[in-house]
Fold this sequence. Notes:
Layout: E1 2-4, E2 7-9, H1 20-27, E3 46-52, E4 59-65, E5 78-80, H2 82-85, H3 94-101, H4 111-127, H5 134-139, H6 152-159, H7 177-181, H8 189-192, H9 195-203, E6 208-215, E7 218-226, H10 229-241, E8 246-249, H11 254-257, E9 267-270, E10 280-283, E11 286-290, H12 295-307, E12 324-326, H13 327-339, H14 345-348, H15 353-363, H16 368-375, E13 379-384, E14 390-394, H17 395-399, E15 413-421, E16 427-435, E17 443-456, E18 462-479, E19 482-489, H18 491-497, E20 500-501, H19 504-517, H20 526-548, H21 557-560, E21 572-576, H22 596-601, E22 617-623, E23 629-635, H23 637-640, E24 645-649, E25 673-674, E26 680-686, H24 689-698, E27 700-704, H25 716-722, E28 725-726, E29 734-736, H26 744-749, E30 753-762, E31 774-779, E32 785-789, H27 794-805, E33 812-816, H28 831-844, E34 848-851, H29 854-860, E35 866-875, E36 881-891, H30 899-909, E37 918-926, H31 943-959, H32 963-970, E38 983-985, E39 991-993, H33 999-1009, H34 1012-1025, E40 1029-1043, E41 1051-1057, E42 1063-1067, H35 1076-1088, E43 1104-1106, E44 1109-1110, H36 1125-1151, ...
Parallel strand pairs: 1-5, 7-9, 8-9, 21-48, 22-34, 32-33, 36-37, 42-43, 47-48
Antiparallel strand pairs: 1-2, 3-4, 3-5, 6-7, 10-11, 11-15, 12-16, 13-14, 13-15, 16-17, 17-18, 18-19, 18-20, 22-26, 23-25, 23-27, 24-26, 28-37, 29-37, 30-35, 31-32, 31-34, 33-44, 35-36, 38-39, 40-46, 41-42, 41-45, 46-47
Amino acid sequence: MFALNGQRQWIGDVAPSTVLYDFLRTSTPYTGTKNGCGEGGCGSCSVQVHELDDESGQLKTRCINACLCPVGSLDGCSVVTVEGLGNAQIGFNAVQERIAGFHGSQCGFCTPGMVVACHTALSIAHSKGESCSAAQMEKAFDGNLCRCTGYRPILDACKSLTAGVDLEDLGMHCMDKKMQEHKDISVPKDIVFPAWLRDYNQGKQGDLIKAEALRPSGPTQTWLAPKSLSSLLQEMRTVRGGGQSVRLVGGNTGPGVYKDWPVDIDVLIGTTSVKELTGITNREEGLFIGAAVTQSTLIDYLLEAASKPLKQRKHQSNGDKGGCSGGVSGVYTALAHHLQRIAGNQVRAAATMGGNLVLAKEKALESDVATLLSALQAQVGITSVDKEDLRWLTILDLLDEKVVPMGCLGTSDIVTSIHIPAIKPTHFFWSFKVAQRHFNAHAFVKMAMLLDVDQTGSDGHKGLHVQAAHVSFGFDQMKGDKAEWQLQQGEHVEQALQSHKASMDTIGHAVAAVSQDVKPGQMPDAEFLVAAAEGILFEGLASLLHQGLPTDSLLPKFVLEVDSIHDVPPSRGKQVVPNFRRPGGALGEAFGKERALLQASGEAIYTLDQPQSKEGLWACYVASQHPLARFDGVDTSAAMQLPGVMAYISADDIPKGGINSALGQEPVFAEGLVEWVGQPIGLLVAANRAAAERGAQLVKVNYTFPEELGTPILQISEARKAKAYHKIAPGMDHQSTLKEGQSMEGVLKGCQHQIRGGRWTMPSQLHFYMEPQTALAQGDGEGGMEVWSSSQSPHSIMQGTAMVLGLPQSRCTARCRRMGGAFGGKTTRSVVPAAAVAVAANKLKRQVRMSVNRGQDLRMNGGRARIELEYDVGFDDSGKIQALDLHLFLLGGIIMGGSTVDVMSLAGMLDQAYAIPAYQFDIKLCKTNRPPHSAVRAPGKFESPLIMEHIIEHVAARLNLDPVAVRELNFLKPPPSGPEEGIVTMTLGSTIPASLYTLPRLWDQLKTEAQYTKRLAQVNQFNKSSVWLKRGISITPCRFKALLHGATGLRPALISLYPDGTVLVTCAGTEMGQGLFTKVKQVALHELSKCLPEPQRPMPAHLVEVADNNTSALPNTGMDAGSTTAEGACESVRLACQQLVQNTLAPMAANLQEEVHNQNSAEATWKAIMKAASNPMAFPNKQLTAYALFDGSRRDKPAGEEKLMYSSFGASCSEVEINMLTGERRVLRADIMLDAGNSLSPAIDAGQAEGGFVYALGMLLQEDVTYDAKGQPEFDSTWTYKIPSAACVPREMIIRMLENSPNKVGIMTSKSTGEPPLLASVSVITAFQAAITAAKQGLSDLQASGLKRGAESAHTNGGTESVREQVLRQLEAPVTVKEVKRVIGDLHLSQLLLTHQQ
């Protein structure tokens, strides 16, 4: 039994292996806990768990992942979900109010997890009588992901509750005084840990707790919770003797990584109640750690032990030097800090130390724990189940199959203890790992080193001597055709160090020995792994060297100044927003997001949160495992034997008259042929999510590979060779400004300078919305179908459902309240799962729902098109570009799909804001065996400035000019002022009024306010003084072309006034986090308030609600796309409100003039007007409903005369830093300047700017979509696809909005803000180009001064190519740690050390 928000829950009602998330969904009313990945990788399922400490009787609090926690492990615990912390009924918690008040919730899907993580961190600190610092608070989110906000408002909201933080130092908020003063995070005791649960725990008798229930695939499943080791061993013998299967369960985090985790287990034995396995004991011979001790518990113990007053030790290190520490305090602190980088807080709170080692043994888990413990000379205690004897093994012996055979752990033997030998004052410890992200990411390579050092050597000479060395490396090694993690003792490094004086020569030999210990074999990144390992080792040894020598010792600068960027300092942000407030209304106010408090309390309803009917079912995809194959049968027999499995649905179940097609583009279910990995073949439908997913795994598809199919095409090069291209509409595939008779070749030859054959590549990027594709369908009882879908286009859902079922569109209703993010991925791609569940619901006559699991979602939905660019450019001595010839090859999927948008946007925006006389481009869209692509936030638009700024940088590098000067020289020039406004004509022909060409003013303002010139000088000075850390700074512009017409459809709106004074707004456009509903609400408030006396305006916001999207209530609403839907929706709402004001409200207010002016509040006045609009029976007697349609035409012209299209401009200045030794990189500061026109809602627009910029950082720095040689995706989980986390954002981010820039052709003088911030991020990659250039130049100088004759120089590449050009040619996004190291090249570290004269 356990408590859930204070209520009793009986474990015996469900199988003990049922994860808490599924229990919450099927057995409770709580839907606030979300499932973004099912892997423990995103934190959206975070819950708070409280349990009594058996010895102290004190409550222990932790935050864990509900998607991994089996309910059997919760006996005697209290679980508090986000609703338990606070809600609309009992009142909101201060954490919930702060996140809503600081605009920290956009789509809201991650928000409940963020709230729980923040509240837990504060609660744990308060329980210790401590205050949580801002730095601690930021690290509390290392297990939580957000795709919308850019993290800054979330971090500010939570830091506002920490010690020593002033609200004035944080970002924008909309909290009133009462909310600002509310800092109470307490939760009622009867929710945290009710008295009855204390009684239950005190009343538990005996050495064993047992629970039984129906298991997933058999009659019963048993959960055992022994309290002693002897009881555990006895139960294991009993279970084995009875022929039953058994599994030990610690934190159950393994299934988050390994999808083949066994679930068909008879008996599960929990280890976390076993006293001998859960203690930590510090004895004279060292530290003894129970195998079931969680990583978080050990971290807390180590930090507490390290902080206790201890005797002064030799070689106590500087705590700022990464993972370098000496003595007990130093070693414990360094060990704890490294452990804090494993997974996220939630996983560490559940994962056990012993479990990690077992996974390293049985599954080759890339184990930091094993690497650290091996270097510390730790031993693992293994207890025999039968003999109950204990034997101690080294970590390497544990992993050696010859010593411990595979499969014996957890059956014949169990890991019971870990022993870390006593730390001596002379011990020096260093550890580090290089990974894709600082937190919550597996390492590419890791190293740990324990040295025993002394000031006097065995020969009696003074100086630092290494008496003993223990070094461990962890890295991937190619074994056959498979990469497998390897823990390797650094024997050769140890030999180079042991019994040697700590000197340059010793370090040089140690670094040289790394390649003998780190042997990745044929790994594609083998050079990087060795180089990074050398860098880590050098950092540690250099730190030891200059700490141990006397202060007057002379060391070369490249040793003395081994800095690191290992730690992540707290971030900060600022929003500089002009006063956009319109007189007498709500427009321009920094409104909080509509229903943000409900999102923060978990009460906001998403698609999957719709009530499940009594006989409702869950579905899971059966999908292709091959990129190109035929299949002639599907065997579902094994799946159908599972309890709860109901049916298999395929194309055969589409009713007569229905079409197996999602809007005519792709089949809903494959029929005999699959053309990409992840293509849906069918649905496995069951009584619950877990049964559906297990059943789908058991379905067998009989694939064949006939020769006539050929081989799958997966890469651009393969498509070009096969000439496999999609057909592109004329005008989008080619454009040219060449005059008749001109040839590009002729123009290029006439230029003073030419760059020929330039090549560059831009990566793909996946949407990674936090809420996966989700749909729910049920018949309406009269032959129609109702579908709830997380979709950017309910209209398309309605059409797709009607098509697949053969129904009239009027009989199909599509609904959507909100989405947990979309970013273009839920335009057309949402139709496929919605149509699939509609087929299932139609066939089974029951409600069917599906939330596509994260892996399948990533596999079946292609993202941003990868682009290979080829170019020739001609220019003069000044850098003025005279000719540009571009050839672009886009990596598309098997159907054209959303790639059309990439092509269209590229064709319309490639010229950006540059004036180039001779310009032409050709675009080809490659057809490959990859999933259909869909528009990803700013499709094609983002790549346009990337392409142009790369070319500008290349021209500047060739001429050795400042790229800023080259940019400014090539900018479009505004027309001369005159009596009539001039027109600015873009290179490719589009035009805008001169008043909208704000780039020159915006550019100059950003250069000044970001202090670009001053900071450039500072960066250059830093690079001169720093050896291994290098910085770069860059400033780039962008142009965004906004279209409010075309394929996305017209924008209708319906406004309904009610006699009680409330207002319901029904509009086109869905709420996906971009704040559309908030803007629409502000427009309605602004317009309707015009019937009130001016001093009372605006009317109270609580009177206006925005309705769900519903195609029965408001059909033909088009599709959300292009960052302009909010503008169109606002305009249609404005037009409808105008009707009501003009036809009803204003005349009535005039008739009630005396009564209106006698009211003392806007609400009273408004209600008086509405009361007059109804007869005594409260039936309206006036027009209280209005419909309007925005047709996409310009607002400064007569309706319908000219379609609305405009350009907005932006720029950013980014400063970055790299570590040459390890490849680590980070963005130090980003200044973003955007032109939002006269913003309708500045808080929403600022949030879009921050979130969009960080979204772009994902593609630029760490996200990529790669397939192996067999066409299998390498990115289909949160463990392999790494979006930015809170530690990845710029350490300082400043958002500025341009003042006095009304959009005279647009909607209420505003401009779009959803996608332009992505375009502004280009300065990040150009800044990294500058930093890496500085690194290569500095390395060349260093090598020239310290290397032997004949060593390779970085200045040239066998010719006259400058370092700047080398970097531009070689560096491609994403700028990962691997990419940084690859482009910098070999550091020749050992040669530097061995040849340098001291």
